[in-house]
Automatic annotation (TrEMBL), chains A, B:
SMART domains: HTH_CRP. This is Crp/Fnr family transcriptional regulator. It holds the Pfam family HTH_Crp_2. Keywords: DNA-binding, Transcription, Transcription regulation. Residues 151-217 form the HTH crp-type domain. InterPro entries: cNMP-bd_dom_sf (IPR018490), HTH_CRP (IPR012318), RmlC-like_jellyroll (IPR014710), WH-like_DNA-bd_sf (IPR036388), WH_DNA-bd_sf (IPR036390). It comes from the Bacteria. The keyword Electron transport does not apply. PROSITE patterns: HTH_CRP_2. The keyword Glycoprotein does not apply.
Amino acid sequence: MEPLDLRFLEETFPFWKGLTLREQQKLLSQTRCYVYPKGSRIHSGLERCTGVLAVKRGQLRAYLMSDEGKEITLYRLLDGDVCFLSASCILKNISFDIYVDTEEETELYLIQASAYDALGKSNLAVQTFLQETISARFSDVMWVVEQIVFMKFDRRLAIFLLEQAALEGNDAVTLTHEQIAHHMGSAREVVSRMLKYFQNEGLVEVSRKGIRLLDRKALNALARE
Amino acid sequence: MEPLDLRFLEETFPFWKGLTLREQQKLLSQTRCYVYPKGSRIHSGLERCTGVLAVKRGQLRAYLMSDEGKEITLYRLLDGDVCFLSASCILKNISFDIYVDTEEETELYLIQASAYDALGKSNLAVQTFLQETISARFSDVMWVVEQIVFMKFDRRLAIFLLEQAALEGNDAVTLTHEQIAHHMGSAREVVSRMLKYFQNEGLVEVSRKGIRLLDRKALNALARE
């Protein structure tokens, strides 16, 4: 467990400064900071009360997983992002279960769900932040829905590769075809087939190390189609 | 415009009785009741401030529509349901646009978005109801995502026919194949092909009037697969 960084909490939770000293201390006493290595499962659909999760540094992936092991990424959590769906026990009308894994070494704060809930029942700003954060994740998921329902697979793959390269900070996507399929809610063969087509068209280079973006202009055009 | 039914407002908005008389009067002065015939467009993605919508009686369909006219139903609104996505101008982090149409003659209350917003900025119960209602719609949409990503089309169609027959209150689904495709985010040909298969298997009878469910047991088994 790591020491708590008060400034991070102030910056991440807009209501923090409006709390009384006693409320701050109570919340602090129920907050823990952990560092997880890449590839750790932080929250699974089976638990409902992992806690309110705030990312100090790192990268997390929130996703759905079916009984057969099919997956689809709903959103990523980056520095400063907060997730309440890992504390769905305090959310009356959230009836679905998500998984959250680290994609990089991640330092995160976990606030006990019951502590946040108690505060949200008496403090308007705390409740408002909850509503606004849930709305933000709702918007993330709607973007996923729009892509799945309205876009052809080539366009979706172009969007995914560009977003992923932006996350990785260069022109490379170091994921297997299987991992890409899990992000996109698709099957490995479908991803491999489209990547091969992209390669033939000169958009990307596919190798054992991953995928290198060769023609960003064409990928961008495809993504905006 | 119809006279306002105070009891409906009390039952629909759990915070109503906790408001001061002055707050109630202010909200009432910004609330209107309308009766819309079947097939009316209540809210379109182009507007962002139609208002907070409460259904007194009837049936509405909230859906996404692409530039090419492809559609997918996100959820239905029935008696007593409230929708805030038709007032997304007051929702900081809602960045998507939905359409809302009546599917039956519908009596609905529209509260001016700014009036609800003003109250939500000072009243915890008003803000909490907003959060809980958005969470409920988020759960509705996640059920759609799970179906699209994880389920085969035959299972999805069985689920849709059973839900739709329950809404219509009998064993008939009086929708065209095109309308079913719009609900499911699919194409007419795909729906027609699967319905033909269902008919050959003795699950349904397809005629000009619509679809009649013949073997609920088999449809239920398919839906639960």
